Amino acid sequence: MPKPIQQFVQFGPVQLPYSQLFILRRHVFATVNLKPVAPGHVLVCSRRPVKRLYDMTEVETVEFWITVQEVTKVMSDIYKTNCHVSIQDGIHAGQTIPSVHCHIIPYSGKILISQAENLKTERSEEDMNQEAQKLRAHFEQSLL
């Protein structure tokens, strides 16, 4: 019997469905955020489960940062603003999912990111799927 095709990626303890991804590469993926602190808040994540940035291989690191750069450019163009780009490298740095990922957040000018942490609410799966679908159009060549 053929092995079923995997329809999700592992992100720490969470399984993210492909429908919430807008980039899927050999070593990284990009996804919309379950609890965004601002519109357009997305994540670039390592596909291999590594907890700290220094645990990534050189090849993974290069693909990770190139993807961060590309996503930041597109999000800046879409939202007509600059972006916050940040990594919480380990639990003491505020990392809530124990897997390397980078937050890319278009600057809204309305609220400080540190204040927004308390305002986050979970989004529906449908809302996340729709946002990922819109973003996919900007990254069609980046899907496996």
TrEMBL record:
Give the signal sequence positions.
none
Q: Which residues form the HIT domain?
A: 7-118
A single GO molecular-function term is: catalytic activity
Pfam families noted in UniProt: HIT
State the name under which the record lists this protein: HIT domain-containing protein
The beginning of the lineage is: Eukaryota, Sar, Alveolata, Ciliophora, Intramacronucleata
